Amino acid sequence: MQSDDSKARPGQEFGWLNRDVFRLFQKAWDKHLRASGTGITVPQSRVFAELRQRDGLTQTELADLVMMEKAPLGRLLDRMEELSLVERRPDPSDRRVRRVYLTGRIDEFYDELWGAAFAMFGAALEGFTAAEYETLLDMLHRIKVNLEAAEAADGQGQPGRQEGLRGGET
Hints:
The protein is mainly alpha-helical. The chain contains 8 helices and 3 strands; from the N terminus they run αααβααββααα.
């Protein structure tokens, strides 16, 4: 049940729940990584996940996707290069740009990391019916599309006008 305060600020409860779910996922993921003995950290696992989807991202693209500033990401990539987990190479068409690539070393960790991730997702979705799961995915996809549209409308990566949450206020 919503409190009077959350009725006065539509979306507030959604925001807090979203933050809490993200925090709990991060906490569970960190706990697993520490117990795994691989030495892989949460930020490194984010880099792995993004590069597994699209190897050869620029450092700027990767920073945006893993939600890190460029300087801390650069230091993280330095450590990952020292461990032979990634390598940075100049872009063939613009030598000022450096692209980040996975090395074969990810194969040592891949099955364990993603098996644990899927187990964690399974625990989070315990008790959901297949229909509820599909509805959840549909709703999350709609939220993603809405946020991407707001970002594109603003053109600077800042959320645009949120009429759905503020009743037409800007």
